[in-house]
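Section 5: illustrative case.
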């Protein structure tokens, strides 16, 4: 069929014209047949289209090279690029901005630095070089992970080592006294420690560790260095995205990481987190494997402050959650 507004030929089940963005009326031509199929996530433009209309307000959208997520700066509607074309993003939310200005940010960071959460009195020797604020898009990917592994529990291992050390120490002292072998308590402790290690290998047990995540994957490739590792956004305070709340010179950034890539990255990061948590709980972990159930992500725009400090000859970069003032990630602190 053809678009009623611009006359371009369009698919029979199209809901929007890929050329001009005009919404096709229900029942026009053969489009009514495809209406029920396209209501939830309609294709509004082909991947190669360089400019198309916002499906909500009709404003022009011009994808930049590599962009896969576009938020209309007029009405706040968002679209994402899939293999078959651009589609509406159904779940698009935001966190409210509560750290409102640079001074509030610096006051918050000073408390972190002076109290030693980062480094004690680091703020006194640092100079703030730059602060900036932007609404950064994150894919929030639901992941249910089950990790299966075998290991020796830390408590069991410590108990065995302590008991064997004491026993062998006493034996060593007795043997040194009677037979002149001179092993003594220290020698007995060394032998006891080695024996405990050997004894522990016979107490391997099978475990499972289940966790559910709403894992955030930053949707901007240039910010991958600041990808959260074990940070959890306060999703309970998120609201439907409203472009009118993005005020002043602050921008809601577009993204260049698609949903499929985000789901793959979330699975990778969750597997790493599961492994780290298992190794923190147990010693001598063996035969570890994780199975993940990855769901469909939602798009979350987060007010993010970027702060740069110079400290001696080093440059410290901090990424701060503008909704609660907590530090999401940092670069340069590990040098201190």
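Designed sequence:
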């Amino acid at each position: 069929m053809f678009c009623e507004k611009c006359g371009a030929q369009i698919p029979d089940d199209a809901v929007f014209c890929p050329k001009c963005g005009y919404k096709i009326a229900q029942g026009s031509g053969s489009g009514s047949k495809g209406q029920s199929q396209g209501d939830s996530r309609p294709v509004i433009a082909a991947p190669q289209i360089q400019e198309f209309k916002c499906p909500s307000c009709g404003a022009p959208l011009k994808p930049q090279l590599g962009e896969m997520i576009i938020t209309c700066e007029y009405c706040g509607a968002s679209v994402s690029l899939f293999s078959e074309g651009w589609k509406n993003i159904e779940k698009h939310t935001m966190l409210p901005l509560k750290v409102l200005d640079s001074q509030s940010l610096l006051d918050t960071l000073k408390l972190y630095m002076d109290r030693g959460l980062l480094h004690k009195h680091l703020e006194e020797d640092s100079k703030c070089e730059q602060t900036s604020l932007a609404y950064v898009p994150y894919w929030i990917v639901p992941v249910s992970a089950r990790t299966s592994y075998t290991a020796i529990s830390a408590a069991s291992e410590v108990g065995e080592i302590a008991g064997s050390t004491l026993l062998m120490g006493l034996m060593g002292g007795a043997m040194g006294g009677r037979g002149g072998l001179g092993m003594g308590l220290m020698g007995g402790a060394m032998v006891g420690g080695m024996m405990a290690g050997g004894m522990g290998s016979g107490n391997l047990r099978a475990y499972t560790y289940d966790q559910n995540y709403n894992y955030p994957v930053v949707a901007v490739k240039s910010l991958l260095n600041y990808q959260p590792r074990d940070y959890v956004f306060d999703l309970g305070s998120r609201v439907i995205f409203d472009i009118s709340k993005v005020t002043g010179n602050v921008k809601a950034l577009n993204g260049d990481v698609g949903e499929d890539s985000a789901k793959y990255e979330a699975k990778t990061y969750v597997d790493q987190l599961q492994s780290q948590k298992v190794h923190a709980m147990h010693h001598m972990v063996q035969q570890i494997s994780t199975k993940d159930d990855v769901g469909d992500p939602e798009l979350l725009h987060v007010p993010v402050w970027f702060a740069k400090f110079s400290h001696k000859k080093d440059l410290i970069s901090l990424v701060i959650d503008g909704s609660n003032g907590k530090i999401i990630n940092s670069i340069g602190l590990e040098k201190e």
